[in-house]
Design a protein that fits this description.
By secondary structure, this protein is an alpha/beta fold. About 50% of the residues lie in helices and about 15% in strands. It is built from eleven helices and seven strands. Strands 5-4-1-6-7 form a five-stranded parallel sheet, sandwiched between helices. The protein has a two-stranded antiparallel sheet with strand order 2-3. Helix 1 crosses helix 2 and helix 1 packs antiparallel against helix 5. The longest helix is centred in the C-terminal third of the chain and has 13 residues. The radius of gyration is 18 Å and the shape is elongated. About 30% of the residues are buried. Bound molecules: magnesium ion. Magnesium ion (MG) binds next to loops.
Length: about 210
């Protein structure tokens, strides 16, 4: 049997390192703009794939704001809008503790691989400093690729010269886990922290 040791740990961000719920954005904005329906607003964004355009870096936030402002006749200004857009995260304390702990063990290389955009990333770095531990990052909006596209996993491996046999991805989205496995990486589907910890300790002990 082939021997390997997992030394590279790749973390997803949303609903892995920090929790999020975009309804805070839709509902918060709808509450502020009395005429706005949160459901219609959300539907418009999803139907026009504005979320995908943002994370793949094909649309910037000024355009996103202008488009929505025009369509829904919004009164809010750009910076308040971006605040509503970004303030949708909260800490995953168990992951915070784990990340702080393993970052002190020098034998692991840690990475962040996230479908995200620039306002969300800045908001997270500012409000959840433990995420800053991960300074080796592949961010979808910068590389114009996103999970579960296989090419973003290959890009990560090539850029950081990682052997997939020595690399594990931790991600809450099943399709991302499947795509990572298809390029040869070890994977853990992050559902509950307890289940994750049992798989994680097994994988790190593999010889
Ligand atoms: Mg996620």
């Amino acid at each position: 049997m082939k021997k390997y040791r997992v030394t590279n740990i790749v973390f997803d961000l949303g609903n892995t390192l920090v929790f999020f719920d975009h309804s805070y954005f839709f509902n918060g904005l709808a509450e502020r703009e009395k005429k706005l329906s949160a459901a219609k607003f959300k539907r418009y964004i999803v139907k026009n794939k504005l979320d995908i355009k943002l994370v793949s870096g094909r649309m910037n936030h000024r355009e996103f704001f202008r488009k929505l402002k025009k369509k829904f006749d919004l009164r809010i200004g750009y910076s308040d809008f971006i605040y509503f857009y970004s303030d949708v995260f909260w800490e995953n304390s168990a992951m915070k503790r784990l990340l702080e702990k393993i970052s002190r063990i020098k034998k692991y290389k840690l990475f962040l691989l996230s479908n995200t955009d620039s306002p969300h990333m800045s908001f997270i770095d500012k409000n959840f400093p433990y995420v800053r531990i991960l300074n080796k990052r592949v961010l979808s909006y910068k590389v114009h690729m996103y999970k579960p596209q296989k090419k973003i996993f290959r890009y990560l491996l090539e850029k950081h010269k990682l052997n997939p046999d020595n690399t594990v991805l931790i991600d809450d989205v099943k399709d991302n886990v499947k795509a990572a496995a298809s390029v040869g990486m070890h994977t853990i589907h992050y559902v509950t922290h307890k289940k994750f910890m049992s798989e994680f300790s097994k994988i790190l002990k593999l010889k």
